[in-house]
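Quick start: load a record and inspect it. Here is Serine acetyltransferase:
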Amino acid sequence: MSTARTIVDADIARWQKVGETDKHGLGAAFFALTKKEEFRSVLYYRMPACRAFAWLMGRGAPALYLNTPNIGPGLYLQHGFATVVTAKSIGRNCLINQQVTIGYRGFDKAPHIGDNVSIRAGAKILGDVTIGDNSVIGAGAVVIRSVPPDCVVVGNPAVIVRRNGVKCREAL
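Running the structure step on this input writes:
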């Protein structure tokens, strides 16, 4: 019934696609709502009025903070424990693992995350940077410079190890 319905439907489809549930339609939605606190956190973000029903559906993930004004459909938070997401925007079909920090580096300098980006466990993305579409931020990477599209970055400081599917080693 909400204007966020199509976005929530895309979130459910994404959770189903990455293997969290083999159920379809209402079964997938019910499973995500009752069993996955990370999904509930995203739902409460998209539809704040649903928080009133938290006693029925369950609370969101206790150590997951979503403070981003624009998150595209298909957001998947895997193990949202100790995860802080404070970006200016996040594109479609983003995957975020646990203990990730996406946040400010200076006043009003937060990242922009593109479409189909995968951010692995413990990664840090800080400041006024852009993460290009279809990029992967490796586990534990510290990113303080923009990442071009179609790249894999790892390390501290992060370096590009794959660009457009070809192995390389380039500084950001």
